[in-house]
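If you are new to this repository, start here. Below is one unmodified record pulled from the training split, so you can see the exact layout before writing a loader.
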Amino acid sequence: MDNLYRVLLRPVITEKATLLKEEGKYVFEVSRGSRKREIGKAVEKAFRVKVKSVNIVNLHGEMIRRGRVKVKTSPRKKAIVTLMPGEKVEFFEGI
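And here is the target side for that same chain:
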């Protein structure tokens, strides 16, 4: 996957992701077929930073209730990107 817009889908902004930001780690939802190197290159190209490491978390779909109906959510993939010391993503600042 060469196109970074196909690799990085959206940033994950949760309480836990905000705490990780203080350690220089940023969380993104990524496409299910992307690999660690592709994710690292996409983050470096999109935000002009140096990536130290990438960790991936596969989230399986879970059953939730919509009234009387049970629905399965779609599976997702998250990437926790650790940046080199001194680097930060300006997009997340102020959140």
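Two things worth knowing about this chain: Residues 4-86 form a domain with the Alpha-Beta Plaits fold (CATH 3.30.70.330). The first helix runs from residue 4 to 7.
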